[in-house]
Amino acid sequence: MKNKILLFLSVIFLSFCFIVLYKGLDNSNIYTPKDISKKTLNKFVSREFFSEDMINSEEIFFGNKFYILNIWASWCLPCREEHPALMKLSKKQSVKLIGLNYKDDIKNAKKFIDKFGNPYSIIITDVNGTISIGLGAYGIPETFVLDENKKILKKYIGPLNDQSIKEINLLLK
Amino acid sequence: MKILKSFLIITIFIILTKFSLAEEKNSELLKIKISKNIRCLICQGQSVYDSQSDFSLSMKLVIEKKIEEGLKEEEIYEFLINQYGQWISYNPEFNRKTFVLWALPVVLFLIGGVIIFRKLIVLK
Amino acid sequence: MLASQIGYYSLILSLFFGILIIPISIKNFNNVSQKIDTRIISISFLQFFFVAISFFGLIFSFVNSDFTNETVFNNSHTTKPLFYKISGTWGNHEGSLLLWLLVLTLFIFLFLIKSIKEPKKYRIITLLFQETIIIGFCLFIIKTSSPFNYLFPEPTEGLGLNPILQDPALAIHPPILYLGYVGSSIIFSASLAALTQNYISKNWAKHIKFWILISWFFLTLGIMIGSIWAYYELGWGGFWFWDPVENVSLMPWFCLTALLHCILVLEKKLFYSSWILILSIATFILSMSGTFLVRSGILNSVHTFANDPERGIFILIFLFVLIFISLIIFFTFNKDVHQQSIKISLLSKETSILVNNWFMMYFLSVVLIGTVYPIFLEVLSSQKISVGPPFYHKLIIPFLIPFLIFMSIGPNLNWIKSPIKKIKIQFFLIFLISILTSFLITKKFGNINLLNTILIIVSFYLFFITIKDFFSKENINFSQKISHFGFSLLILSILLNSIFSSEIITNLKVGEKIYFNKTTILFESIENTNSKNYKSIVGNFKIEDNKNNLTKLKPEIRVYDYPFTITSEADIKTNLYSDKFLVMNIVKGNEYFNIRYQVKPFMIWIWISTLLISIGGIFSLFRRLHEK
Question: Which residues contact residue C28 at a Cβ distance below 8 angstroms, ignoring those fewer than 6 apart?
Fold first, then answer.
């Protein structure tokens, strides 16, 4: 009798394990934080790209309905791919594009802008990557879509594709 | 007798562990210690200490800065977990969701102890 | 191309033989003859033989850089050195599965030859269970992971092998590990067979002990080689990271060690046969689960193979089929009759073995739960957590203390019981010596917290006790002496190494020097050289300590072409007392190099002690063969 109960319990337990493992197979291994979207962007201090003056994030995020913070570098190939999309977005009146130049050589970054165009209202530099970590970024390219209160509406890890552009356009209405 | 002794020993040591985990005073060593406990988020299963990726190098600088600012070890973990979620810390926090993780092995140990104890008592 | 075709058809052929052997065995089972049909042994040999041919077919494809073979294309390159072309065969998912099959078929053949004196029916049922596993794997390989997929048109060049895998230790690590890991399959099959035939007895224990020892020996060695590789190759001075794939090899080891200890008792007298069966079944089930966890992509790890959902589902179903078969057989055939008649006195060797099992199962549960819990949590609550070294250290280290104490006292209980005062004094005296030694160490180096101090005391206690055993006139078997001594040395080396290691990380450019712990580190120069498939930058460093001892270290940075990877090769100078470890990394856009210098005491003792533990096992094998 004891044996039968034990067997029954084992079968139940193992079936449970099987189902969990089966479902676990579908889970993506890439961690995309979900709740982050409800947070506000942290304050930071950085250097302005052209003037090399120190500038505060309060001064940057001022006076617009929407902001897009895009992390890029001249050595980053996917950044080149998403660049045309950024150029298009920069034409919209409601949004201010902010570029965060990540671990880049100033000369190379300037060459990049000259060659491909500058979609950003303002560019700031993050020479050692610490500012990006302060914002909770993973790497490059990465794009934050923010509202007027610096609340993060959406975060894109990796280059912007057609799907993300559509989503952004919807958000900006 | 032996089993009772072992229960006693184990309880004492679990309590001792809570009080014996020394605080790292040296800031360089503290940076190393923290970076071993933080996951490199763009790598496949490496800690920030073990990785040379951009993310890890920047992370190490951030940890160093936070130590300089005077934050304690626990506060630095809190800051990073706040930014990136629990996934970044290799030390799972003890809460309602992870309570089974921490408690189950010990519970199994105690059950095992009881089973053995009863077998021995019965046969004595 | 021909080699791949031969490989593919050999594999099919071996599947055919595997299926063929079943009706012949069943027929032999039912007939009156006491002898096993020699045809069965021949067919099992053919099954192994054709898997071997298939395996060699794959090796030849790699050696010839036959890129019409998809596996070769994905994992090799014409400029790879020959040695790594060969070892690359099993450095990938498909090839390593073929290695799995090779070991599975080898072990059943060897089992049939070696078990001549065993009952025929038992041998046949073992064969049938093993064939279930073999056929399952064969189908898995052919259907989802064939190493012989054809690519057309032939690519001119392959994608190359990850440079990290191009290392001698990594070349021998899978074969040795698999001999242990996969070898536990025969213990599984034989135990289930013995259960159905009601053959669990002292004779069976003597016979199965051989297979347990073989599996345990190779598993211990395999894990050790994996750690050695990680230490020398991965570049950061660690040798164990509690990475899921490492954990997966450690879990069967706990089971096997517990099983080994139990079987030693069963050899001499009746012991908890149900529990022994559970351990035998669990060991292989853990191996299979490990294969699932590692190859299905469900876990995030440095070591994971490329994954594919179809493969994951196949292994998962296969695994649970095996589990359910074992469950049904166990509950159908297991008799509790024996349990009542086992009498154990409280302070006896048998109790010590039970305590050993108790702790082994605890350590196993910590590693198992730590490894799979994140999966369960994510499925049930969509929350992702990481379980790493802090978790394992917090749960394992405190329990090591009572474990080491029991390990010191347990094997010697017969003598503790004895009324002779001299022996009790001996034990107490050794305890005092341990405290003294630990006190001296703490005094000299200072700054050791309470937990570590107690750990040092009990580790020394076990260490001295096991040394005393070498001189003792008592009837302790030699293999136990070596293995237990080896284990005490292992714990001691790991402990002292982790407490007394020191490290500095800094950026230096050529010509600079830095002071660290009474030593000077001078970055003399760099040299650029070219090798077969990489370019290298070698740094020349001079380490001088305050006694004017000079050490030269030459860490290297390698830039591989195919695939484009940059690796850092540490330079390690080893001696009996400590290792000096130096690794160098490029700092982007700079003439500076980031260097990490570590002094790691007693590193080599960690490897020596693990080797001693395995040697103890081999001694036990030789003793048995000698006795015969």
Answer: C36, C37, C40, C120, C124
